[in-house]
Amino acid sequence: MSLQSLLAKLPFGPWRKAGPLVSVVRLSGVIGQGGAFRPGLSLAAVAPLLERAFAPKDQKAVALVINSPGGSPVQSALIAKRIRDLAEEKKLPVFAFCEDAAASGGYWLACAADEIWADESSIVGSIGVVSSGFGLHALIEKHGIERRLYTAGDKKVLLDPFSPEREDGVAHLKALQADVHEAFKAMVRARRGTRLTGSEEELFSGAFWAGRRALGLGLIDGLGDLRAVLRGRFGDKVRLRVVQPERGLMRRLGLRAGSGDAPALQAGALDQVAEALPTAALTALEDRLVWARLGL
Description:
This protein is of the alpha/beta class. The protein has a single domain (3-126, 207-292), classed as 2-enoyl-CoA Hydratase, Chain A, domain 1. Helix content is 41%, strand content 17%.
């Protein structure tokens, strides 16, 4: 046995052999572009985290902690593709762990992993597409408000909430939804393959299930939490390296160090915060509605 091997057995000092390494990335929130108070789960936001997570050369795997009710199908697809590209480039297995929800676009992200794990109470699935809006034409008519809308191109505005609903507009929207749904289904089929045991009619209906039922349908590979599963896979000495965003909320809002330890606002930052508040409130409401679709 070499001297280095003997030194590695020592319980102290720089020669001590460390346990296997797994990088952990948290993907939490509604998927899509955010604002000043919510960066959003977009490729632009998470790409640096993913690059750092896959960077270590001596690690055994990358773990994704997912807590998302979904959101933008485009950003879901882009993030999932980046995860797969990095996994294949680095030749690393990827584990996904569902928390409260990995639904709709959140499940799209989970499918980028080689194995998906969840809690018994996790919400999983919702493989479908949804669009929503309001019809306000009767309301403005009641209050004597006249809608004036001018376009070049008869299909330029098909779903105007202040005009009566158009049949061709609804048909166009449903066709778009069908295309996105097919892309989602293709992703699930490609990644889950023969592990899917439920009928496609059930799986792709847009329904969602708790963890144990999701396991029975083949949507996940097991029930368990990150620490227990990774310790079971890589041993009790596995090291979990959590990859955190480099910039915090204070920096995004333009806060800087002032006198002493108290933060001070940069010139004009208060005005920017005040202007962002209405948009932030609307964004928070929209996010709340997305979670509410799952009963959460």
